[in-house]
Amino acid sequence: MRQGTIQTLDAKRSFGFLRDAAGAKIFFRRSALTPPASFTSLAVGMRVEFEPASGPKGPRAAQITVTPLEAPPVLSLDALAAYFHSHAAG
């Protein structure tokens, strides 16, 4: 699977365009989304993984999976207090 970023969305017509890592513009339709993602949950700038395919007018995505964002680690209150105390003293 390749990685890319959503560049444009047309909700009324249920299609959009991705940019892959090399900068190529890739067309996609709502039907290419794999569950549990829905077209209404997409936003410009979201990272996705997709299977490339050929379409009648150029490259397209045959299967798209939204890449979940990585959450930062959760620190305890004691760890946060120690961090701020050590950085405030400097």
Give the helix/strand layout.
Elements: E1 2-10, E2 15-20, E3 25-29, E4 47-55, E5 58-66, H1 77-88
Antiparallel strand pairs: 1-2, 1-4, 2-3, 4-5
Short description:
The protein has 90 residues and is mainly beta.
**Content-based structural category:** mainly beta
Shape-level CATH architecture: Beta Barrel
Shape field: elongated
β-strand number: 5
Number of continuous helical runs? 1
Helix content: 10-25%
Radius of gyration, whole Å = 19 Å
**CATH H-level superfamily:** Nucleic acid-binding proteins
Major β-sheet, in short? 5 strands, antiparallel
Poorly predicted regions are: none
Strand adjacency order, main sheet: 3-2-1-4-5
Number of structurally distinct domains: 1
State the end-to-end CA separation.
46 Å
CATH C-level class is Mainly Beta
Mean of residue pLDDT?
Answer: 87
In terms of DSSP E residues, the strand content is 35-45%
Provide a descriptive summary of the structure in words:
This protein has 90 residues and is mostly beta strands. It has one domain (2-88): Beta Barrel (OB fold (Dihydrolipoamide Acetyltransferase, E2P)). The protein is 13% helix and 42% strand. The chain has one helix spanning 77-88, and strands spanning 2-10, 15-20, 25-29, 47-55, 58-66. A five-stranded antiparallel beta sheet has the order 3-2-1-4-5, with no helix packed on it. Strand 4 and strand 5 form a beta hairpin. The radius of gyration is 19 Å and the shape is elongated. The model has no long low-confidence stretch (mean pLDDT 87).
